[in-house]
Write a structure and sequence with these properties.
The structure holds two protein chains of two kinds. By secondary structure, chain A is mostly helical. Chain A has eleven helices and no strands. The chains are: A mainly alpha, B mainly alpha.
């Protein structure tokens, strides 16, 4: 009170950080939604405590990791790796023309719209769902996984590739065209040098992503380590589950390091 | 000799190359390894050729079974499952944001001065991202039992790595000016975070949140396949009973929702952020 009396202007001066009521209301709405949604899922404290207890038992059964099924593990992992590599190569090969067709600075609208629709279709389904359909179409095994991941690769690479082509400098295209070059030469001499480095970057990212997903398509019968993992889960062989998970994570991390190295080489 | 000396350009006639020999060697090594990997994969992968030959007929059969779409399945089962999926994705994203903020703060170089703590945060981020959301879902189904809760937690734990990493990067890009100004006034740590860092990272924070929500809508649609709730369970039921017309309806619903979410996110981004 005495301080207020000493500073007569304090009351009239604007607060340095005025209250932002719309933002506060937004936060309150978010909090209210969180409480409501948590109640929908019966996310209560008792359930959480029981869950923690279950979790402790679960981890107890996982340890120590089981180390004597190496043959099964190696076969699953190498099949996942093969699925990832083949699907990336084929997916990238198909995505290149589709990405080119979807680039609005290279193609007329009646070509770009169907290409963009196809990309949106490929992108909107999770690879595991696509894998289910291909398991029905081509049967159990690696082929279904490969085809599912090809679809995923097309969606991702073609979209980024189209964006990369749309961002290129048109001066070089014009220069190449001015020499009387045909369409193929414009692509090879004008477009390709500008997008190659980014394109290799996208492809290595896609390889990483396909490697992650190739360990999962097995859950629905698409080949690879996922089948082994799911079976181990259903048989409650949690110690083997832990071994598989550690191997998958190690493989993905090695893959990331390698692809990062490739990206730096081609910068 | 004299003739050569007379040519002015001969000494200068060097072949210019864009890359150093080391770079070229590295590139050729990458090409070689890539080709070898592809050849080896094609040789050893187990593909049954009869299945491949049969594929077109099977795909035609698949679409024939899917048509006409069983619309009556939507009000019966799919609608409730769809709402649950949306809740799983949204609540999962909110939980992930809440958990990723401390981890992101710990991982940012300009906020956490202790390398050991940063390493710990990086470890959390990497392990969250390396485990697929389906695996997280399997783990949480084993712990909490089947249902939406397991799915929500799977989405949340999977998203921590993504959100935390991008948040740490946004924090590291923040300007030092406001931070130094507040430090000079003797403001406590929390005030510095709230009044110096938060206004700077707020746009990227909401943009990361929206981006992740969009991804989570897609991901939460499959979690039901391992029993973690949502529209994936409706899909799994229809698949197991071989009701392909119901499968078609579920897929159509997923497609519509994913596209709608993407349009919504693009709209919010362009309008607000």
């Amino acid at each position: 009170m005495s301080i207020a009396a000493q500073e007569p202007g304090a009351a009239s001066r604007a607060r340095p950080f005025p209250a932002n009521w719309p933002a506060r209301l937004g936060w309150m709405a978010l909090a209210a939604y969180t409480v409501y949604a948590a109640s929908l899922f019966q996310l209560t404290w008792e359930r959480f405590v029981v869950g923690l207890d279950n979790g402790a038992k679960f981890i107890g059964r996982m340890l120590p990791p089981l180390l004597d099924k190496w043959a099964l593990l190696a076969r699953g992992l190498s099949e996942s790796l093969e699925i990832a590599i083949i699907s990336t190569v084929i997916g990238v090969a198909i995505a290149m023309p589709i990405g080119l067709f979807a680039a609005r600075n290279m193609m007329p609208p009646w070509v770009t719209w169907p290409a963009r629709g196809l990309i949106a279709l490929c992108r909107s389904f999770h690879p595991v769902i696509v894998a289910i359909l291909f398991v029905k179409a081509v049967g159990f095994g690696a082929l279904a996984g490969i085809m599912a991941l090809i679809v995923a690769s097309i969606g991702f690479i073609a979209k980024l590739f189209a964006e990369a082509i749309e961002e290129i400098s048109l001066k070089q295209i014009e220069a190449v065209r001015a020499t009387g070059a045909g369409f193929a030469n414009v692509l090879i001499m004008g477009v390709q040098p500008q997008v190659l480095a980014r394109f290799i970057g996208f492809s290595t990212y896609q390889l990483d992503s396909n490697l992650r997903n190739s360990t999962m398509v097995g859950i629905v019968g698409g080949g690879g380590i996922g089948a082994t993992l799911f079976t181990a889960f259903q048989r409650f062989d949690y110690d083997f589950v832990l071994t598989i998970l550690i191997c998958i994570i190690a493989m993905i991390m090695v893959g990331e390091v390698l692809s990062g190295w490739v990206r730096r080489t081609f910068q | 000799m004299t003739a050569e000396a007379a040519l002015p350009g001969s000494a200068m006639r060097r072949e210019w190359q864009r890359f150093t020999p080391r770079q070229r060697l590295m590139r050729y090594a990458v090409y070689l390894v890539a080709v070898a990997a592809v050849v080896e994969s094609v040789r050893s992968v187990e593909i049954i050729p009869e299945f491949l030959e049969d594929a077109p007929a099977q795909i035609v059969d698949l679409f024939a079974r899917m048509w006409p779409v069983d619309w009556s399945y939507y009000p019966k089962t799919v609608h409730a499952a769809l709402i649950e999926t949306l809740h799983i994705a949204t609540l999962g994203t909110i939980l992930a944001l809440a958990m990723a903020v401390p981890v992101g703060l710990m991982a940012a170089t300009n906020i956490t001065p202790w390398p050991a703590l940063r390493l710990f945060a990086k470890f959390i981020l990497v392990s969250s991202r390396s485990v697929n959301s389906l695996v997280w879902a399997l783990l949480f189904v084993a712990v909490f039992g089947p249902g939406g809760l397991a799915g929500t937690l799977a989405i949340a734990f999977r998203s921590i790595g993504f959100v935390g990493k991008l948040l740490a990067e946004a924090l590291e890009e923040a300007q030092k000016g406001p931070v130094e100004a507040l430090t000079a006034t003797g403001a406590p740590w929390l005030t510095i975070i709230l009044k110096a860092y938060w206004p700077q990272v707020q746009p990227s924070f909401w943009s990361i949140a929206l981006f992740r929500w969009d991804i989570n809508i897609r991901e939460s649609a499959v979690l039901g396949l391992v029993g973690a709730g949502g529209i994936g369970m409706a899909l799994d039921d229809a698949l197991n009973l071989l009701y392909w017309d119901q499968v078609a309806l579920t897929l159509l619903t997923i497609f519509t929702v994913v596209i709608a979410a993407e349009v919504l996110v693009t709209f919010i981004r362009s309008r607000i952020i």
